[in-house]
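Standup notes
- DV: blocked on the single-chain target, sequence here:
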Amino acid sequence: MNLKQRIAIYIFTFLVIIPTYGQKIKVSCVGNSVTFGAGIADRENNSYPVQLQRLLGEKYHVENFGKSGSTLLRKGHRPYNDQPEYKAALEFAGDNVVIHLGLNDTDPRNWPNFKDDFIPDYIKLIESFRSVNPDCKIWICLLTPISHRHPRFKSGTRDWYWQIQEAIELLAETQDVELIDLQEGLYNRPDLLPDALHPNAEGAKIIADKVYGAITGDFGGLQMGELYTNHMVLQRNKPLTIRGTANAGEKIRVSIAGKKATTKTEDDGEWAVTLKPLEAGGPYTFTIQSPTKKITYEDVLIGEVWLCSGQSNMEFRLNQSTTAKEGIKSAETKGAMIRFFDKKARWQTNATTWDLAALDSLNKLKHYTPTSWSVCDATTASQMSAIAYYFGSMLADSLQVPIGIINNAVGGSTTESWIDRKTLEFEFPDILYNWLHNDMTQEWARGRAAYNIKAGTNNLQRHPYEPCYLYESGIKPLGAYTISGVIWYQGESNAHNVELHEQLFPLMVKSWRANWGEELPFYYVQLSSLNRPSWCSFRDSQRKMASAIPNVGMVVSSDKGDSLDVHPRHKKEIGERLALASLNKTYKRNNTPYGPLFKEAISKGKSAWITFTYGEGMKSSDGAEINSFEIAELPGVFYPAQAEVIDGKIRLRSSKVKKPRYVRYAWQPFTRANLVNEAGLPASTFQSIVTEK
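- DV (later): unblocked, structure below
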């Protein structure tokens, strides 16, 4: 290299490379009051752009160009493009531009009148930033949440908000900009939105973290969800989707049982691969690898995976049941064929007051103690749900494949606590409001929750019985981990209002199926016998819903109830009845799935003739006469009926009823009804009009 060449390189380095190296990367935070930091204590230090600056460090220069009340719509009541903050943002000419606008466009002055302008106006805004810095990188943001507590929520804001979200997603697909989901992380944290709209400092930190990840691609490297541990069971015979997070753009390799797949991490840090269906077997080594990290899971089986959920009767442990001794002993023989992922609550909802640390964890959705998959043995089985254990045990014996049981039941939990927020916002919003004083939630549940959280200082304090809470803390963290189906035992905390539960339960099933993206089989336990007046009607309602909701089934437990205890200890029979239902309906085995199910009642003279599905071999369970049938001519004026099995039907008669018009069975809160079929499975409570033929 001659002297002239050396001088040229020196001049180039001094004039070009050194200034470029010392120049900071400019980040423009464009938006409304959420960007500005309205409502945040010490906004100058806690708004999201300030927190973003701390995360990005000295190589970046972050500026806040948020304007409270501003709209993206140029004909809106306060267009952002007319504000001095917009002109300052153009002068700043950021290298990275993060736009969060649209919340104020949900105002009735704006969206109903000018919604057709939203996409054209957004494109103009994007192009304006490119005009001052053609090399800038632009992110547009899905909106931070607007809580149901917002005064205009039901009058239009809720609907317009989601229409705007859809428009923003469409823009990201077509305008060479990237998308940041600012709803994620905040939507399930209404406690971080004190005024239903503006995140507090903790909420602003969540926004800053999301934006930091988008700008840098740093999402903490390869990470997997809570269900991925040693000893896990993966679902057989279905396309198996594996999901995780990693740094943006990283290549991910997945390998198990001779199957391999690769993918590239998306810009939001998410990745997913789908393996072709795997046959039952194992144990296998399961590896997931990025360029900088390798995760290896040992002793992984392929088999059947079921989610077991509900309230305390599903939570009820094997070592508490009447068959504890023999059940725990049998667990030793199951060996590695059964695995448990047993999610237990950190704090039982007993009549105690939780401390502030517990309340803070609850607000952060940390209701469950961290756990991992464990192999079935006397120790693990004894602490497992008794019903879930016996269900899994029968499946393992019958199918001869590994069984994985996920249990996340929570004592006393309400149906509404297991439904996702968006479903309730659109289909049952009234149950969300002021829930501790809302009589749509059962009085006992509200009272217990108030007692648990009475030491709290946050007027938006969360609790497991709150609508949406257990979905957000117990279902959403499961992701869409591939499973075969669900068994469910709950209703005690909703039995006060049959009609309300008839709306909530189908919504819950729909909610869960949407999460998994398929019509999962759903088998549930009818409430047992207990001296609570509403339980007859509730059991009958549960019976009718089994035929109204596709791919669900109900098993009866009233014959194993306890008149004084809401937690009957006979659990083996219930778990095995759930297994019989799934063996027949899901696995197409030739067994009887249910006890006699009422089909129709016909009047002939002075008799009522009752036809049942699954009524083959009907008899009494105890060798005595069949009892607990009643007939009536007038509503509510029932008399005990003599019941006989004739040609596969039940004939009912009473000397006090000349012409039967109504019939019911097992219509006592605590019942000793004894009708079973040849499989020994009990008939359900029912009530019906008798038709004349």
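- Follow-up: The radius of gyration is 30 Å.
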